[in-house]
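User: Can you recover a sequence for this backbone? Please restate the input before giving your answer.

Assistant: Of course. Working from this structure:
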């Protein structure tokens, strides 16, 4: 795709284990707090509601209102990313419910992730018939951002709402216990020498994108710019990344090329950093390979120690934190990293935010099965 227009981020919205709102998220992260291991208001396996829809609507509504729009919307493309989607509701069923739940009509509704996008679009007033769900393991939300970016940049639409959401369920947790990716300690320690795995939390993150010209003409306020994104695939293992980090390197370099930036123009990297032994070490080496000699001049952070791994929401939430970092002139800390692993040799931000003027940042999002997505977010001046 030929990028023809500059794409602005004019609104952001988030729900995490800390609660609803981007300000709550930033305040908790800046204070070095974590919600991992803390039960949230939405963690009710017995609840019959559609938690993913609730999370999505809350975060999306905040993104819309922070962009200066009111509901209902119109002429807005919706791109939604999820890993598990509504299938997670199956984990809440009793044996007595199975007969009805597994009937063709009901099962199809729950298994079809596009239902979530259509329902959310209808609630917001977006274009229902063009709403789309993307699912690519933990890169789902980042893929949705890339999809929406392409649509706006190419002139196919003026405005797009993009993000992702997933909930924490026993259904998902049991799978990761079997895969041995979950942290026995119940903590996420990104890039830390004692890291022992990841931990999962619910979450949702949405960004309102529009062409810069459209945003300025309506009197909007660009928070930052999406300059480009890249994807890369490595399929060496179901859970372990390629030992050389080829997919991650391809994604970061493709994002830089799409943005028209050189590695030395990057000031900050928001790492995917799941807290697993292999993934963090390979991501660290990949960052050094891409950024090169300039690596020691950047800042690197990670957010999963604070908010956990939020599946399809992890990419959008990381992008939102990059936008906030640019706005506030601070690089956020890698909460949970207390003793950096020498095998993850990076200029990490520890304990508290670091005052820093960030002009351009890479936001990494990697997923099981070999999916890798990187986004470039740039300051608007």
């Amino acid at each position: 795709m030929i990028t023809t227009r500059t794409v602005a981020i004019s609104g952001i919205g988030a729900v995490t284990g800390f609660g609803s709102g981007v300000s709550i998220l930033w305040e908790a992260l800046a204070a070095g707090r974590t919600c991992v291991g803390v039960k949230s208001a939405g963690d009710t396996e017995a609840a019959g509601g559609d938690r993913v829809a609730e999370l999505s609507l809350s975060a999306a509504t905040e993104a819309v209102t922070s962009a200066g729009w009111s509901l209902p919307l119109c002429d807005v493309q919706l791109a939604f990313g999820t890993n598990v989607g509504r299938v997670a509701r199956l984990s809440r069923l009793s044996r007595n419910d199975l007969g009805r739940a597994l009937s063709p009509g009901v099962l199809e509704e729950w298994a079809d992730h596009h239902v979530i996008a259509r329902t959310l679009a209808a609630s917001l007033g977006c274009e229902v018939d063009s709403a789309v769900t993307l699912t690519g393991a933990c890169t789902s939300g980042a893929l949705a951002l890339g999809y929406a970016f392409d649509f706006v940049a190419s002139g196919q639409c003026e405005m797009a709402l993009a993000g992702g959401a997933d909930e924490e369920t026993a259904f998902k947790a049991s799978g990761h216990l079997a895969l041995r990716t979950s942290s026995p300690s119940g903590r996420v320690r990104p890039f830390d020498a004692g890291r022992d795995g990841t931990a999962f939390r619910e979450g949702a993150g949405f960004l309102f994108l529009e062409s810069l010209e459209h945003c300025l003409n309506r009197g909007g306020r660009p928070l930052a710019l999406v300059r480009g994104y890249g994807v890369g695939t490595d399929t060496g293992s179901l859970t372990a990344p390629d030992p050389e980090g080829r997919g991650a390197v391809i994604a970061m370099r493709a994002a830089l090329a799409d943005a028209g930036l050189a590695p030395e123009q990057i000031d900050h990297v928001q790492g995917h950093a799941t807290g697993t032994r292999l993934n963090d070490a390979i991501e660290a080496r990949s960052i050094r390979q891409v950024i090169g000699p300039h690596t020691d001049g950047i800042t690197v952070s990670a957010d999963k120690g604070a908010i956990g791994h939020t599946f399809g929401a992890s990419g959008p939430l990381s992008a939102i934190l990059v936008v906030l970092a640019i706005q506030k002139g601070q690089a956020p800390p890698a909460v949970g990293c207390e003793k950096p692993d020498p095998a993850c040799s990076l200029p990490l931000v520890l304990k508290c935010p670091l005052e820093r003027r960030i002009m351009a940042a890479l936001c990494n999002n990697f997923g099981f099965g070999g999916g890798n997505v990187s986004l470039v977010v740039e300051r608007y001046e």
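That completes the design. The CA atoms of residues 300 and 348 lie 5 Å apart.
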